[in-house]
Metallopeptidase TldD-related protein (Pendulispora brunnea), 481 residues
Amino acid sequence: MPTQSSLYKAPFAPGGPNEIDVQLAERLLSIALAVGGDYADLFFEYRAGGGLLFDEGILKSASRGVTMGLGVRVQKGDSTGYAYVEQFDWDAMKRAAETAAQIATGGGAKAPVALRSLSLPARYELDQVTLDVPGMDKRKLLERAAAAAHAFDKHIIKVEASLAEEIRELLIVTSDGKMARDTQPLVRFGVRVVAERDQKRQEASSGGGGRTTMGYFEGKSPEWHAREAAEQAIRMLDAVEAPAGTMEVVLAPGDSGILLHEAVGHGLEADFNRKGTSNYAGQIGQLVASDLCTVIDDATLLQSRGSINVDDEGNEPRSSVLIEKGKLVGYMHDRLSANHFKLTPSGNGRRESFACAPMPRMTNTLLLAGEHHPDEIIKTVKRGVFAKKFGGGQVDISNGDFVFSLTESYLVEDGKITAPLKGVNLIGNGPDVLRKVSMLGNDVGVSDGIWTCGKDGQSVPVGVGCPTIKISAITVGGTKV
């Protein structure tokens, strides 16, 4: 049975008070195309979300909210008209369609293709969404995390535990004949701790989730996340000043994929290449990475944070190969860029909400595994850095230059991981780093439901992933003089 909430239902769903059926949708599309548009689509969205924050031994906040609306897009050539409303009455929806249609002036009215309902995959079919679980049950999870973190070590002085959840119900209707409905659940749990000793203070965090149920906590309990965060914070109290200079760096599997996402992935989104502003523009068929590297964007992973059954343009996403054995073989496309390159959309048209037009966005972006055991990779490093957890970063899409801070990293000496380091930054260029990948582990991991990607003011949930990666040379910005 498709995922659904017993508490929250979209008014435009079948049987709802503002049900949108085929006839009504076709009328709106006809209005959107009435003054000569080439294409139009309707994006109906209902989003119910909530959050809990437990801090200093009390539940500091609990929230619930609902947003809903309709976005109408009309395309004429490379130009786009967009309008949205927050009501589902006929007059408001008609006004939005007429407003978006104004991008086109003149030309015959194009009739929409007869609609057909799409049969979608089931990548997050759940028996109960977390929003339907009683609030007290979720509060207990936060209390358990706080208690476990404080019990780990007496130097843990502060613990904050949080849970954010939502369900997003969509109806996408296009003038080329597609009608798709999807319900996208999402939950994220997190623990943040502060440790203090001898006037030294360190923060650390752990979290996870995805498009999943409360069953997530059967695999990774609140206590597990609390111990992960607390152990990291205590360990980093003994961190030493980081060396600076060009050296070998080993990236841990899983969340290190965020470097790939930011420094390489955005440059592979087709809108930047259509406009010629990406470092990868015009490079299809060229070697852009070490021949060890194969990079994919894969929306099909079961219950992953970045997975979707349908993109926000009504296209079913797939696993797309972007770089194959070092060679650039493709970009991530929405409808507009696919038309430009005369290709089929890859299902990467995504938007934050009904108030936004879609654009090419990543889903789950992964560097695939290699052949080496992770321990074997570490043993080859004479002196370098092991990067385990990433913080924030900055990237220039036009050339791939980046700066990333590390929240957990270690010195590697004579093939062994030794002292924890503080104040570490990685400075480099995305394409250059991929060319310097000299070893890849057989341990590819996918991030545990924590990342959100921002682009042009829009945020969407994503996944990242990679195996253990050895980079032969990268600039480490340290604090040791």
User: Anything to note?
Assistant: The mean pLDDT is 95. The radius of gyration is 24 Å.
